[in-house]
Structures are given as C-alpha cells and as structure tokens.
Design a protein that fits this description.
about 70 residues; mainly alpha; elongated
Length: about 70
C-alpha cells in the first residue's frame, strides 16, 4: 500500500512538472500557434512552395510512423 502511495505522489509531481513546462513563458499549451505556413522550412519564410510542403508532409508521415 505504501509503495502505491509513493508511486502516485511521484506521478503527480511528474505531471505537474510537465504541465508547468507547457505553460512556461512563450509556451503553446493548446497548440493554437502551431501549424501555420511559417512552421514549414522554406527558402522564403512564411511562403513555402508546393515542393517544400510535400517534403514537410513526407517528414511528418515518417515521424508519425516512428511514434506509432
């Protein structure tokens, strides 16, 4: 029983730490500022070409595949 309480406390501290970092200055805890054209690496910032978008999509597909 004591072991479960300690594990619960450690997990609560870990969760609080992760949430704290998400709300840190300059953070984006909701993801509302993510996913715009400026997030794609391009020669002209904020104006990616079709090839640059396709390259980013391929990288995202590969990254998601590794996660799952």
């Amino acid at each position: 029983m004591k072991k479960k309480v300690i594990i619960g406390i450690v997990l609560a501290i870990l969760l609080a730490t992760v949430v704290g970092f998400a709300y840190a200055a300059g953070g984006d805890p909701t993801g509302a500022n993510l996913g715009t054209a400026k997030d794609i690496a391009s020669a002209v910032a904020g104006k990616p070409t079709l090839d640059e978008v396709a390259t980013q999509v391929a990288k995202n597909k590969l990254g998601i595949n590794f996660v799952w």
